[in-house]
């Protein structure tokens, strides 16, 4: 990280404070601490264990300008599958809330949804206990940078005993320009006792967008006693984009949280999705589906911290890699000394469609308790030759036969998506990607393309 790059982010920080005006007394010191920590850490290096397969030099060596406000959004963007989802939505363009594009009809009156910047300006007191208190920036430079520089994001507050029937969509739309730009969306979701909601985070832009940009997002979710949250995150950004996202989930007694993370684009993607149990009888599911082709890199790091007894976690991540696509999966499950009766399962499955595709997979258990039931594993390989032969013998072309098998592989995750409209949008996105992903000849499997960490 050059001094010029450091200076650009320090300048962005100072500009943010100046343009936002007065902030809550507790937030500015937190921002300054995060910026100081980012300056100490610098961007990750490949000699660091958590980043050894993900080279972020294209980000570190690029000077990004803060993304400016956009007065209009291309119609074709709002008409794309993710933009056309028929749910109440908060729309953020280049990281900033757009009241004109947002629609909140159908959300019950006690529920508070809107711009995080507005919430900090109008009524910041309820946010002090939660905002930037869960996603730690001590060891993660991108979280530190987000904490220092975020200008806006989503704020969702579901009061106790409230069930929200319709999904709530947070739509983050990137409209890149000529110069490389960066945006730091920050979202906070508070779901109180006995409440229930479905939340969708969608990050997208026009597929033909050529401008270089960085989305550096962070989402914190607090799930209180007996609350239920069904969460989806879909990223389909331009090939010229870089996407960093941290999801931090805190679960209280008997809370239930499930997340499905679907990644379809960007030059470099890093997802850090983490959950921590604070009380007994809670349950967490972290699932994911990702596609990388050409020279794309998708890095999924997950961590589930079983700090208390009698909690369950489930995890299934599936990857589809083509061309020179590179996938990384590092899944950690921590079972602390007192976390007896833990039940944790973790699986990573990857399809390699090209001899040049690479996967680095590391399912990981760290168990310090005796009475537990924990499993993990990874399977990597090409499409089954026998299945391809069976389909070809029925008169199906090679490419369509491969696409059928790829869809069957992916639908194990997609079929778990509960909102029908979102499931159809993901199917449409997958269909748009598949014709470019499937080769016309059978791909021989080469064990050397698999790297176990």
Overall spatial form: globular
Major β-sheet profile = 12 strands, mixed
Radius of gyration: 21 Å
| Spatial gap, N to C terminus | 26 Å
Protein structure class? alpha/beta
Q: How would you sum up this structure, described in words?
A:
The chain is of the alpha/beta class and 453 residues long. It has one domain (3-452). It is 22% helix and 36% strand. It contains nine helices and 22 strands. The strands form two sheets. Strands 1, 4, 5, 7, 8, 10, 12, 14, 16, 18, 20 and 22 form a twelve-stranded mixed beta sheet that branches. It has a ten-stranded mixed beta sheet with strand order 3-2-6-9-11-13-15-17-19-21, covered by helices on one side. A hairpin with a 2-residue loop joins strand 2 (89-93) and strand 3. Helix 7 (385-392) crosses helix 8 (398-414). The protein is globular and about 70 Å long. The two termini are 26 Å apart.
Brief characterization of the structure:
This protein has 453 residues and is an alpha/beta fold.
Q: Which key terms come to mind for this protein?
A:
453 residues, alpha/beta, 12-stranded mixed beta sheet, 10-stranded mixed beta sheet, 9 helices, 22 strands, 22% helix, globular, disordered C terminus
